[in-house]
Amino acid sequence: MKNLRDVPSPGPEAYDRARAALRTAMEEPVATVVRPKRWFSWPKAGVAAAGAAAVAAAVVVGTTGGSVPAGPSGPAPQAVEAPLVKLASAVKAAGTQPGDASLIINTKFGRDDKPDLNYTLYTDKGRQFTGDSAKSLVDAVAKGDAEPATPYDGKVMAAARLAANGDVDEARIAMITASGNPLGVGLSPAEAEKAWAAAQAETAEMFRKMGKPFPGPKPRPTGKDLENLINNHLWSNTEHALFANAADAEVRAGVLKLYATIPDMVVGKTTVDGQPALTLTPPPAILGGGTDVLTINAGNGLPIREEITSAESSKRYVVNYKSSRVTLADVAAGKI
Questions:
Q1: Global confidence as pTM
Q2: What is the sign of the dihedral through the CA atoms of 217, 189, 28 and 306?
Q3: Is the pLDDT of residue 26 over 60?
Protein backbone atom coordinates (compact mmCIF):
# COMPACT_ATOMS: atom_id res chain seq x y z
CA MET A 1 0.00 0.00 0.00
CA LYS A 2 2.87 2.39 0.74
CA ASN A 3 3.96 2.18 -2.91
CA LEU A 4 0.55 3.37 -4.14
CA ARG A 5 0.33 6.84 -2.61
CA ASP A 6 -0.03 8.53 -6.03
CA VAL A 7 -2.94 6.36 -7.15
CA PRO A 8 -6.42 7.94 -6.88
CA SER A 9 -8.47 7.00 -3.84
CA PRO A 10 -11.08 4.22 -4.12
CA GLY A 11 -14.58 5.25 -5.14
CA PRO A 12 -17.79 4.68 -3.16
CA GLU A 13 -18.63 1.47 -5.03
CA ALA A 14 -15.29 -0.05 -4.06
CA TYR A 15 -15.92 0.72 -0.41
CA ASP A 16 -19.41 -0.74 -0.71
CA ARG A 17 -17.99 -4.00 -2.05
CA ALA A 18 -15.40 -4.06 0.71
CA ARG A 19 -18.02 -3.39 3.35
CA ALA A 20 -20.13 -6.24 1.98
CA ALA A 21 -17.27 -8.68 2.47
CA LEU A 22 -16.56 -7.22 5.90
CA ARG A 23 -20.17 -7.50 7.02
CA THR A 24 -20.25 -11.18 6.12
CA ALA A 25 -17.18 -11.83 8.26
CA MET A 26 -18.41 -9.69 11.17
CA GLU A 27 -21.83 -11.33 11.28
CA GLU A 28 -20.29 -14.42 12.89
CA PRO A 29 -21.32 -14.64 16.59
CA VAL A 30 -17.83 -13.81 17.86
CA ALA A 31 -15.94 -11.12 16.00
CA THR A 32 -12.25 -10.33 16.05
CA VAL A 33 -11.46 -6.80 17.10
CA VAL A 34 -11.47 -4.30 14.24
CA ARG A 35 -8.31 -2.24 14.33
CA PRO A 36 -8.65 1.52 14.14
CA LYS A 37 -7.25 3.28 11.09
CA ARG A 38 -4.61 5.15 13.04
CA TRP A 39 -2.87 1.94 14.19
CA PHE A 40 -1.70 1.26 10.66
CA SER A 41 -0.74 3.92 8.12
CA TRP A 42 -2.88 3.46 5.02
CA PRO A 43 -1.95 5.91 2.26
CA LYS A 44 -4.34 6.61 -0.60
CA ALA A 45 -4.73 3.62 -2.91
CA GLY A 46 -6.67 3.01 -6.10
CA VAL A 47 -8.93 0.08 -6.79
CA ALA A 48 -7.37 -0.56 -10.17
CA ALA A 49 -3.91 -0.88 -8.67
CA ALA A 50 -4.61 -2.38 -5.28
CA GLY A 51 -7.62 -4.52 -6.07
CA ALA A 52 -10.74 -5.14 -4.03
CA ALA A 53 -8.86 -7.25 -1.50
CA ALA A 54 -6.57 -4.37 -0.55
CA VAL A 55 -9.53 -2.01 -0.25
CA ALA A 56 -11.33 -4.52 1.93
CA ALA A 57 -8.29 -4.73 4.18
CA ALA A 58 -8.18 -0.96 4.45
CA VAL A 59 -11.84 -0.84 5.40
CA VAL A 60 -11.42 -3.59 8.00
CA VAL A 61 -8.53 -1.72 9.57
CA GLY A 62 -10.07 1.65 8.98
CA THR A 63 -13.73 2.08 9.72
CA THR A 64 -15.69 -1.12 10.45
CA GLY A 65 -17.74 -0.48 7.32
CA GLY A 66 -21.23 0.76 6.61
CA SER A 67 -23.36 -1.71 8.52
CA VAL A 68 -21.15 -3.62 10.95
CA PRO A 69 -23.02 -5.15 13.89
CA ALA A 70 -22.50 -2.96 16.93
CA GLY A 71 -24.52 -1.34 19.66
CA PRO A 72 -26.18 -1.80 23.03
CA SER A 73 -29.78 -0.99 23.86
CA GLY A 74 -29.55 -0.68 27.64
CA PRO A 75 -27.82 1.80 29.93
CA ALA A 76 -24.05 1.76 30.13
CA PRO A 77 -22.62 -0.47 32.85
CA GLN A 78 -20.19 1.17 35.26
CA ALA A 79 -17.57 -1.54 35.49
CA VAL A 80 -14.41 0.41 36.27
CA GLU A 81 -15.81 3.85 36.90
CA ALA A 82 -13.60 5.08 39.71
CA PRO A 83 -10.13 5.39 38.11
CA LEU A 84 -11.13 6.25 34.56
CA VAL A 85 -14.00 8.61 35.29
CA LYS A 86 -11.88 10.40 37.89
CA LEU A 87 -9.10 10.82 35.33
CA ALA A 88 -11.62 11.98 32.70
CA SER A 89 -12.82 14.73 35.03
CA ALA A 90 -9.25 15.90 35.61
CA VAL A 91 -8.49 15.86 31.87
CA LYS A 92 -11.58 17.91 31.03
CA ALA A 93 -10.90 20.40 33.82
CA ALA A 94 -7.36 20.96 32.57
CA GLY A 95 -8.67 21.83 29.11
CA THR A 96 -7.08 21.54 25.70
CA GLN A 97 -3.70 23.13 25.11
CA PRO A 98 -3.40 25.95 22.51
CA GLY A 99 -3.26 25.02 18.86
CA ASP A 100 -5.62 24.14 16.04
CA ALA A 101 -4.80 20.47 15.53
CA SER A 102 -3.80 17.28 17.31
CA LEU A 103 -0.64 15.49 16.22
CA ILE A 104 -0.07 11.86 17.10
CA ILE A 105 3.12 10.03 16.16
CA ASN A 106 3.03 6.27 16.43
CA THR A 107 5.86 3.81 16.01
CA LYS A 108 4.67 0.29 15.28
CA PHE A 109 6.87 -2.76 15.87
CA GLY A 110 5.71 -5.91 14.08
CA ARG A 111 6.98 -9.45 14.10
CA ASP A 112 10.42 -8.41 12.83
CA ASP A 113 10.67 -5.66 15.50
CA LYS A 114 11.48 -3.11 12.81
CA PRO A 115 10.00 0.32 13.61
CA ASP A 116 7.30 1.70 11.31
CA LEU A 117 6.83 5.43 11.96
CA ASN A 118 3.48 7.09 11.19
CA TYR A 119 2.20 10.65 11.65
CA THR A 120 -1.47 11.67 11.90
CA LEU A 121 -2.60 15.29 12.15
CA TYR A 122 -6.29 15.80 12.94
CA THR A 123 -7.43 19.42 12.78
CA ASP A 124 -10.09 21.08 14.89
CA LYS A 125 -12.09 21.50 11.66
CA GLY A 126 -12.08 17.76 11.02
CA ARG A 127 -9.42 17.60 8.32
CA GLN A 128 -6.73 14.92 8.45
CA PHE A 129 -3.15 14.80 7.20
CA THR A 130 -0.90 11.73 7.35
CA GLY A 131 2.72 10.89 6.63
CA ASP A 132 5.32 8.21 7.25
CA SER A 133 7.96 10.77 8.19
CA ALA A 134 8.10 14.31 9.53
CA LYS A 135 8.99 15.54 6.03
CA SER A 136 6.08 13.80 4.31
CA LEU A 137 3.66 15.22 6.89
CA VAL A 138 5.11 18.72 6.49
CA ASP A 139 4.82 18.41 2.71
CA ALA A 140 1.19 17.26 2.95
CA VAL A 141 0.23 20.16 5.22
CA ALA A 142 2.14 22.71 3.14
CA LYS A 143 0.33 21.53 0.00
CA GLY A 144 -3.05 21.35 1.76
CA ASP A 145 -3.20 17.65 0.86
CA ALA A 146 -5.76 16.65 3.47
CA GLU A 147 -7.65 13.38 3.35
CA PRO A 148 -11.40 13.86 2.96
CA ALA A 149 -13.32 14.00 6.20
CA THR A 150 -15.49 10.92 6.72
CA PRO A 151 -18.87 10.69 8.44
CA TYR A 152 -17.39 7.93 10.60
CA ASP A 153 -14.68 10.22 11.97
CA GLY A 154 -17.24 12.90 12.69
CA LYS A 155 -19.52 10.47 14.50
CA VAL A 156 -16.86 8.97 16.78
CA MET A 157 -15.57 12.45 17.70
CA ALA A 158 -19.11 13.65 18.41
CA ALA A 159 -19.80 10.58 20.56
CA ALA A 160 -16.64 11.18 22.59
CA ARG A 161 -17.54 14.84 23.13
CA LEU A 162 -21.05 13.87 24.18
CA ALA A 163 -19.62 11.49 26.78
CA ALA A 164 -17.30 14.21 28.08
CA ASN A 165 -20.06 16.79 28.43
CA GLY A 166 -23.21 14.91 29.34
CA ASP A 167 -25.09 11.69 28.75
CA VAL A 168 -22.66 8.77 28.78
CA ASP A 169 -25.42 6.24 28.06
CA GLU A 170 -26.45 8.11 24.91
CA ALA A 171 -22.81 8.63 23.95
CA ARG A 172 -22.09 4.93 24.33
CA ILE A 173 -24.86 4.04 21.90
CA ALA A 174 -23.70 6.74 19.49
CA MET A 175 -20.11 5.46 19.61
CA ILE A 176 -20.83 1.82 18.88
CA THR A 177 -23.38 2.59 16.20
CA ALA A 178 -21.11 5.11 14.48
CA SER A 179 -20.87 2.80 11.48
CA GLY A 180 -24.48 1.67 11.30
CA ASN A 181 -27.18 -0.07 13.32
CA PRO A 182 -28.04 -3.47 11.78
CA LEU A 183 -28.61 -4.87 15.27
CA GLY A 184 -31.42 -2.39 15.83
CA VAL A 185 -30.01 -0.66 18.90
CA GLY A 186 -32.76 1.13 20.78
CA LEU A 187 -35.47 -0.35 18.55
CA SER A 188 -38.31 -2.67 19.40
CA PRO A 189 -37.66 -6.41 18.82
CA ALA A 190 -39.66 -6.30 15.58
CA GLU A 191 -37.83 -3.20 14.33
CA ALA A 192 -34.48 -4.72 15.29
CA GLU A 193 -35.24 -7.86 13.26
CA LYS A 194 -36.27 -5.65 10.35
CA ALA A 195 -33.00 -3.70 10.56
CA TRP A 196 -31.02 -6.94 10.61
CA ALA A 197 -32.95 -8.33 7.63
CA ALA A 198 -32.35 -5.11 5.69
CA ALA A 199 -28.62 -5.32 6.35
CA GLN A 200 -28.59 -8.96 5.22
CA ALA A 201 -30.46 -8.05 2.04
CA GLU A 202 -28.00 -5.24 1.33
CA THR A 203 -25.10 -7.65 1.77
CA ALA A 204 -26.75 -10.17 -0.57
CA GLU A 205 -27.21 -7.47 -3.22
CA MET A 206 -23.58 -6.43 -3.00
CA PHE A 207 -22.46 -10.02 -3.42
CA ARG A 208 -24.72 -10.26 -6.48
CA LYS A 209 -23.09 -7.16 -7.99
CA MET A 210 -19.68 -8.71 -7.41
CA GLY A 211 -20.79 -11.90 -9.14
CA LYS A 212 -20.15 -13.98 -6.04
CA PRO A 213 -22.53 -16.39 -4.29
CA PHE A 214 -24.07 -15.08 -1.08
CA PRO A 215 -23.44 -17.51 1.84
CA GLY A 216 -27.01 -16.99 3.00
CA PRO A 217 -28.65 -14.90 5.73
CA LYS A 218 -27.59 -15.47 9.31
CA PRO A 219 -29.66 -15.08 12.45
CA ARG A 220 -29.31 -11.91 14.48
CA PRO A 221 -26.84 -12.48 17.38
CA THR A 222 -28.26 -12.67 20.87
CA GLY A 223 -27.14 -13.11 24.47
CA LYS A 224 -23.41 -13.22 25.20
CA ASP A 225 -22.54 -13.24 21.51
CA LEU A 226 -24.36 -9.94 21.14
CA GLU A 227 -22.62 -8.48 24.20
CA ASN A 228 -19.22 -9.43 22.82
CA LEU A 229 -19.99 -7.75 19.49
CA ILE A 230 -21.24 -4.65 21.27
CA ASN A 231 -18.14 -4.25 23.38
CA ASN A 232 -15.81 -5.18 20.54
CA HIS A 233 -17.03 -2.20 18.57
CA LEU A 234 -17.19 0.09 21.54
CA TRP A 235 -13.50 -0.61 22.23
CA SER A 236 -12.50 -0.30 18.57
CA ASN A 237 -14.47 2.84 17.71
CA THR A 238 -13.42 4.57 20.92
CA GLU A 239 -9.78 3.77 20.19
CA HIS A 240 -10.25 5.24 16.73
CA ALA A 241 -11.31 8.55 18.29
CA LEU A 242 -8.40 8.47 20.75
CA PHE A 243 -5.71 7.62 18.22
CA ALA A 244 -6.90 10.29 15.79
CA ASN A 245 -7.42 13.15 18.21
CA ALA A 246 -5.75 12.27 21.51
CA ALA A 247 -4.44 15.78 22.22
CA ASP A 248 -7.97 17.22 22.29
CA ALA A 249 -8.86 17.12 26.00
CA GLU A 250 -12.60 16.94 25.41
CA VAL A 251 -12.32 13.96 23.09
CA ARG A 252 -9.83 12.27 25.43
CA ALA A 253 -12.08 12.77 28.48
CA GLY A 254 -15.04 11.28 26.64
CA VAL A 255 -12.96 8.31 25.53
CA LEU A 256 -11.99 7.58 29.13
CA LYS A 257 -15.61 7.72 30.26
CA LEU A 258 -16.63 5.33 27.50
CA TYR A 259 -13.83 2.90 28.33
CA ALA A 260 -15.22 2.88 31.87
CA THR A 261 -18.48 1.37 30.60
CA ILE A 262 -16.89 -1.81 29.23
CA PRO A 263 -17.70 -4.67 31.64
CA ASP A 264 -14.73 -6.62 33.01
CA MET A 265 -12.21 -4.04 31.80
CA VAL A 266 -9.09 -4.41 33.94
CA VAL A 267 -7.40 -1.13 34.93
CA GLY A 268 -3.91 -1.59 36.33
CA LYS A 269 -1.11 0.67 37.52
CA THR A 270 2.42 0.83 36.13
CA THR A 271 5.20 3.30 35.36
CA VAL A 272 6.64 4.39 32.02
CA ASP A 273 9.92 6.30 32.00
CA GLY A 274 9.47 6.96 35.71
CA GLN A 275 5.98 8.44 35.23
CA PRO A 276 2.80 6.84 36.63
CA ALA A 277 0.63 5.18 34.02
CA LEU A 278 -2.51 3.06 33.76
CA THR A 279 -2.99 -0.12 31.73
CA LEU A 280 -6.38 -0.83 30.18
CA THR A 281 -7.07 -4.46 29.30
CA PRO A 282 -10.47 -5.40 27.85
CA PRO A 283 -11.73 -8.96 28.31
CA PRO A 284 -10.39 -11.41 25.67
CA ALA A 285 -13.95 -12.48 24.84
CA ILE A 286 -14.61 -9.18 23.07
CA LEU A 287 -11.38 -9.51 21.07
CA GLY A 288 -12.02 -12.96 19.67
CA GLY A 289 -9.65 -14.46 22.24
CA GLY A 290 -6.76 -12.10 21.56
CA THR A 291 -5.33 -9.52 23.93
CA ASP A 292 -4.98 -5.75 23.66
CA VAL A 293 -3.32 -3.76 26.43
CA LEU A 294 -3.43 0.03 26.16
CA THR A 295 -1.15 2.06 28.42
CA ILE A 296 -2.07 5.69 29.10
CA ASN A 297 -0.51 8.46 31.16
CA ALA A 298 -2.09 8.41 34.64
CA GLY A 299 -2.00 12.20 34.87
CA ASN A 300 -3.37 13.32 31.51
CA GLY A 301 -4.81 10.20 29.83
CA LEU A 302 -2.65 10.45 26.70
CA PRO A 303 -1.88 7.12 25.01
CA ILE A 304 1.66 5.84 25.51
CA ARG A 305 1.78 2.27 24.29
CA GLU A 306 -0.39 -0.52 22.94
CA GLU A 307 0.47 -4.21 22.86
CA ILE A 308 -1.66 -6.55 20.76
CA THR A 309 -1.47 -10.32 20.52
CA SER A 310 -3.49 -12.21 17.92
CA ALA A 311 -5.59 -15.14 19.12
CA GLU A 312 -5.14 -17.14 15.91
CA SER A 313 -1.40 -16.88 15.41
CA SER A 314 -0.10 -15.45 18.70
CA LYS A 315 1.56 -12.70 16.65
CA ARG A 316 2.53 -9.75 18.81
CA TYR A 317 2.53 -6.10 17.82
CA VAL A 318 3.63 -3.10 19.86
CA VAL A 319 2.82 0.54 19.11
CA ASN A 320 4.30 3.54 20.92
CA TYR A 321 2.45 6.87 20.85
CA LYS A 322 3.35 10.53 21.27
CA SER A 323 0.60 13.17 21.20
CA SER A 324 0.70 16.95 21.20
CA ARG A 325 -1.20 20.08 20.21
CA VAL A 326 0.20 21.95 17.21
CA THR A 327 -0.74 24.65 14.71
CA LEU A 328 -1.04 23.96 11.00
CA ALA A 329 1.17 26.96 10.28
CA ASP A 330 3.98 25.59 12.43
CA VAL A 331 3.76 22.13 10.85
CA ALA A 332 3.73 23.63 7.34
CA ALA A 333 6.91 25.52 8.33
CA GLY A 334 8.56 22.27 9.42
CA LYS A 335 8.19 22.84 13.16
CA ILE A 336 7.19 19.48 14.63
A1: 0.74
A2: positive
A3: no
